[in-house]
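Incident log, support desk, overnight shift.

02:14 A customer reports that sequence design results differ from what the structure should imply. Their input is reproduced verbatim below. On-call engineer (initials T.W.) acknowledged and began investigating.
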């Protein structure tokens, strides 16, 4: 029997049940990639000889099991991990939750090696970058998921860059656990406050249609122009105390996209989840939501930090294998030791919502040259990374070579100390004096 949610208190309890003792905390890493045809440098489609559907057939032979919607494979699962598809055929691995960064990194490598073997046979490339650097047909190649067709319609009416976000961007994400409400508050507050630092360190999307843009992270800029009711910062996080109740109040007021009934997606127009909870949804009068309905609704909210029964840190441009490993190292180092968490929380306690909002805007263009409260964030990044390193040292999880998890931060120290973001490196290596970007950006940034 599906659990029916009768009132707001039951939704609050849903998030309370996500609380876990520290010994059960895990790490999840998600990373998206563009797949493209080596002959014409165009992103692949869903159908066709070299489309995603044919790729999935080969992955099935390696033990992945298909998830089907309307007779079409839309995802694959194996050993707790999921390969899913973003709207315009960007491919994503959601790795199974693990205890250490060594393990999450190993997952990523095994998957990428497996995918690379298949792509080489089909003469396809795997591009690790935040925004597709060459123009392509954006009105074709969409994944045949009803969810995405509803999202496309909604995105056209909310924000100016929603469809571009769906079709042309890729990111890296880290998922972490919380112990209780106060632990959630501290982690989420730190997550939102440090989001612009992550944007700067991982900035890797400066090219638009083979031209240098005015942005280092154009992907981040796109998100700032996408449906403000469900993206960006939850302002209540910067109040004196952020609670599950305040988060639920936010969720209840976000407009709904759809309800799923018997495997079918039914679009919801001009109503929010509060209407559903009160039995006032026009399409389903006097019906109340299930826990699954709540989870579907949360999946349509795209804030920089998103709370499920765990916390998602969502804001890094896609990039190289070592940066896939660096993102969980950054967050775990800062958030999984109470002493370090308290220290970083105090470090940024006086930063206001308007400070973070302005910095989010600035780093899109200026990266590590941006400032907060008069301080250059390049210098602050080094301080923050030293705290993360200390947190990983305290954890002291060693691999077979007796190496601590801290070495996964090396690439971020290199970026912070040099002041040169991956985006600026892309520009230096691939853009000529007329602002034209070479096709070599594909090969040089592929796996």
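02:41 Re-run completed on a clean worker. Output:
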């Amino acid at each position: 029997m599906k659990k029916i949610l009768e009132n707001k208190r039951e939704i609050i309890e849903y998030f309370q049940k996500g609380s876990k003792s520290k010994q059960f905390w895990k790490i999840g890493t998600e990373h998206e990639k563009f797949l493209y045809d080596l002959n014409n440098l165009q992103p692949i489609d869903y159908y066709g000889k070299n489309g995603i559907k044919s790729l999935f057939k080969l992955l099935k032979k390696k033990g992945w099991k298909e998830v089907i919607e309307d007779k079409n494979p839309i995802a694959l699962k194996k050993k707790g991990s999921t390969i899913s598809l973003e709207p315009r055929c960007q491919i994503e691995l959601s790795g199974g939750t693990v205890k250490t960064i060594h393990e999450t990194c190993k997952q990523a490598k095994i998957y990428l090696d497996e995918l690379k073997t298949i792509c080489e046979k089909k003469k396809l490339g795997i591009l690790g970058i935040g925004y597709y650097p060459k123009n392509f047909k954006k009105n074709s190649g969409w994944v045949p998921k009803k969810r995405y067709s509803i999202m496309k319609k909604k995105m056209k009416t909310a924000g100016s860059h929603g469809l571009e976000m769906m079709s042309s961007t890729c990111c890296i994400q880290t998922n972490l656990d919380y112990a209780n409400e106060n632990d959630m508050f501290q982690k989420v507050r730190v997550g939102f406050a440090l989001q612009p630092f992550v944007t700067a360190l991982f900035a890797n999307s400066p090219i638009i249609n083979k031209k240098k843009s005015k942005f280092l992270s154009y992907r981040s800029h796109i998100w700032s122009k996408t449906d403000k009711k469900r993206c960006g910062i939850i302002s209540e996080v910067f109040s004196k105390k952020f609670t599950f109740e305040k988060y639920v109040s936010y969720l209840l007021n976000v407009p709904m996209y759809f309800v799923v009934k018997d495997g079918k997606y039914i679009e919801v127009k001009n109503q929010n989840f509060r209407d559903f909870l009160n039995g006032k949804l026009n399409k389903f009068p006097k019906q109340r939501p299930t826990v699954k309905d709540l989870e579907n609704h949360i999946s349509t909210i795209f804030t920089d930090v998103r709370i499920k029964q765990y916390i998602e840190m969502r804001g890094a441009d896609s990039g190289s294998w070592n940066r896939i490993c660096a993102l969980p190292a950054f967050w775990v180092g800062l958030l999984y030791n109470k002493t370090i968490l308290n220290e970083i929380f105090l470090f940024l306690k006086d930063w206001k919502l308007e400070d973070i909002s302005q910095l989010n805007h600035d780093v899109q263009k200026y990266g590590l040259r941006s400032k907060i409260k008069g301080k250059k964030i390049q210098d602050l990044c080094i301080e923050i990374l030293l705290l993360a390193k200390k947190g990983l040292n305290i954890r002291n999880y060693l691999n077979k070579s007796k190496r601590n998890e801290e070495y996964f931060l090396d690439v971020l120290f290199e970026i912070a100390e040099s002041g040169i973001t991956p985006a600026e490196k892309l520009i230096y290596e691939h853009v000529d004096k007329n602002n034209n970007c070479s096709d070599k950006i594909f090969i040089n940034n592929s796996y």
